[in-house]
Amino acid sequence: MKKILFPAFILLLIASCTNNHPKQEPTARQENTTGRIMVPQFNADSAYRYVAEQVAFGPRVPGSAAQQLTAKYLAEKLKSFGATVTEQEFSARAYNHEILSGINIIGSYAPEKKKRILLAAHWDSRPYADHDANPEFHRTPIDGANDGASGVGVLLEIARIIQPQLPETGIDIIFFDLEDYGPPEDTQNEDAGEFWGLGSQYWAKNPHQFNYRAAYGILLDMVGAPDAVFPMEGFSLYYAPHIVRKVYDRARSLGYENYFPQQQGTYVNDDHLYVNKYANIPMIDIIHQDPDSKNNAFFEHWHTINDNLEAIDRAPLQVVGEVLLHVIYNE
Ligand SMILES: [Zn+2]
Known about the structure:
The chain is α/β, with parallel strands linked by helices. It has a single domain (4-329), classed as Zn peptidases (Aminopeptidase), CATH 3.40.630. Helix content is 30%, strand content 16%. The chain is built from 8 helices and 8 strands; from the N terminus they run βααβββαβαβααβαβα. The strands form 2 sheets. A 6-stranded mixed β-sheet has the order 2-3-5-4-6-8, with helices on both faces. The site of zinc ion has 5 residues, from loops.
C-alpha cells in the first residue's frame, strides 16, 4: 500500500489527541454490551501463531515456492474451519510489464445468506525493502509479518471461532494476493497508483460469484505493531463513512478508543480502494498510521527488512479481532 498525498491528520471530532495517555490493555470479554448476543472470544495467541506460520514460509512474493505453499496453507486452514473455499487464480501486469501469477483465496460462511459482510487482508509480502535505512536491501523481499500476515492472522482466528455459532450475517473472508507489488520507491512516478492492489483489482472486477454483493467490507492491514493506532483512513471516510462510524463507535464502546481514535488519517492506496471503486461495495481500511512516524506516516518498520515476527505484538491483534467480532455479531 502507498500513502496518497492529501492534507494529513486533521482532527475530526475530538480536539484533544487521545494518544497522550496510556492505552487500555485489551481484555478478553465474552458478553456483549447489549447483554443479549454472545460474542465468541478472540484468542490473540492463536492469531499470533497464524502470523508466525505464514512468516515461516518466507517472503510471499509471486513466483516463489513460499507463494504456493502459503496459498495451500491458507486454503486448508479455511477449509478446516468450515468455510467454503474458492481459490481464484489470475494474472496481472506489473509496473515493469512482467506478467505475475496471483491467487486470491476466499472463505465463505453461510453462502446462501443474502446479507453478507466481507472481511479482507492481503497475504502477499512486499518484494522490495525499499524503505530500509540500508540501500543494499532496497530490492530484498520482506517477511511482511505486520504488512500482510498480521491481518490474515486475525482473520484466520476469526474463521476458527465463528464456526461453532455463526453470526446472523453471511461472512466472506478474502485474502488478496499481489497487493504490495507496486514499483520500488526510487522508480515511482505519478502513475504508480494502479500497480498496487492487483489482486483486489482483479477480484473487484471478477468476483468469485456472479453478482456477488456484500452490505459492506472491512480491510485489515498492519494491525500487529506494539504501538498500533488506527486513525480513520481517508478513502474509508469518503466511500463508507457510515461503516467507519459503526466500527469506531463499537471500538469506543469496548474501551478501545486509544487504538481507534476519532481522528482522520491520510488517504492510503490499499485493497479497499478497488473494492469501493470497481465492486461498489462500501469498504473501510483499518490500517496503522502514525503522523509522527519518520517512515512515510506508517509504522516504523514499514517496507523494511525489520518487518518481521519480532516486531509483532499480541495486544493490537486482540483489540482488532474483538472489535471485528463485536461488529459482525451485532448485525
Ligand atoms: Zn506494504
